[in-house]
Amino acid sequence: MTAPTPTVTLTDIVHRYGPHRAVNGVSLSVDSREILCVVGPSGCGKSTLLRLISGLETLQQGTIAVGGRVLAAPGQCLPPERRPVGMMFQDFALFPHMTVSGNIAFGQTDRPRAERQKRVAALLDSMALTRYADAYPHTLSGGQQQRVALARALARDPQVLLLDEPFSALDEQLRRSVRDEVVRLIRATGIATIVVTHDPEEAMEIGTRVAVMDGGQLVQTDTPLALYRNPANSFVARLFGEINRFDATVENGQIVTPLGRFAAPDHHSGDRVEVACRIEDLALSPLNSHPDAVRVRVRHASFLGSSTRICLALPNGNGGSGSGGGSGAGGFGSGDHPPGEIHARLPGHVDVRAGDELAARVDAGRVMLFPSA
Ligand code: ADP
Q: What class, spelled out in words, does domain 8-234 have in CATH?
């Protein structure tokens, strides 16, 4: 059996604003029934990528195909309204002077009136919006406006759905419930979907696969689990959770770190490497309970509800340096830990105090090695 043709295929996309390459050689494909999340720091080219697929931006280099049909290539560009693409924006971009029905019907003028009405009624029903058909957007809650925007994006039966930071305008309380609901509705359609987000945790939660972008390029595209366990570099590693990080030099197939000696079979003597472990992979136990463990001293501990995050001082002269931030996924721009400090995250409440001495160790299988940048 041959593999199905991906619904969306981007091949070697390059897009410049003046001399600046906002998108620099991106290739990816998305199948139907798949939600691909594109995640990366502000300015890395995520929105430009979506704008190129939707036709809001004219493609300069590469090819964009949907359902096997080329939508854009240099010198060949289908206008946005003729592309089988639905787009939903961060601010919903609903027309304030149009009712909910009017908003959803917008852009379907090429269809006979009866067919248009039928489609709008079906979408109102599937989005639980029928009773708001004649309401105006400003009278609706954020979650309801979100569903109207999704219905409008689906109204022309697109083959691809593009969502640009769809949940960031919603407050924290509302975001999770609206997100669950919108993702459920999208999954029910089975339409190939690309969601842009700057929130790594959100990407892991909703993406079947996640594409990490940095500086206009795709760094790694994989399942959330593979990105978490086998990141391509320390940028990806710290994006999906806080890490402890050390610099080391390989000697005779081994590296020495403040957390012990580890094998580095794929590196040559003299190679500079970054060594990292997730803070939840650092095991803590009573002193002298494990021969391979190192002695650490608690600086402070924070109880976070489902876990306790513990800052630990390494023995004098051992320069650990962790990075990542916040709870859950790491996020962008968080600096390294102070020198000589490592962090651990243990499930539930852990009763430790500043000054307590403990034994720390990490399983060799959980140690990540990257060539130094
Ligand atoms: P992201 O969505 O990841 O925040 P964008 O795709 O919006 O990133 O932007 C990528 C880069 O291109 C940024 O450096 C941004 O400043 C630049 N850029 C975006 N749109 C324009 C534009 N219309 N003109 C010039 N530069 C732009």
A: alpha beta
Q: Provide the residue ranges of all domains of the chain, joining segments of one domain with +.
A: 8-234, 243-371
Contact 250 CB / ligand 1 (< 6 Å): no
Give the CATH fold of the 243-371 domain.
Answer: OB fold (Dihydrolipoamide Acetyltransferase, E2P) (2.40.50)
Evaluated on CA atoms 170, 162, 186, 219, the torsion sign reads: negative
Higher-pLDDT residue of 62, 326:
62
Written as one letter, the residue type at 251 is E
Single out the residue of 275, 276, 341 nearest to residue 309, CA to CA.
341
Q: What is the pTM of this model?
A: 0.89
CA of 176 to the centre of ligand 1 (A): 28
Q: For residue range 65-115, what is the model confidence (pLDDT) as tens digits?
A: 999 999 999 888 899 989 999 998 877 788 999 999 999 998 777 778 888
- The stretch 269-282 carries a mean pLDDT of 94
- Ligand 1, atom 15, residue with closest C-alpha: 43
Ligand 1 pocket check for 17: Cβ under 6 Å? yes
- Residue 250 CB contacts under 8 Å (≥ 6 apart), including other chains: 264, 267, 268, 269, 270, 271, 273
Between CA 114 and CA 23 the distance in angstroms is: 42
Among protein residues, the one with the nearest Cα to ligand 1's atom 26 is 17
Output the six-digit token pair for 160.
């691809």
Which atom of ligand 1 approaches the CA of 45 most closely?
6
At residue 326, the pLDDT reads: 40
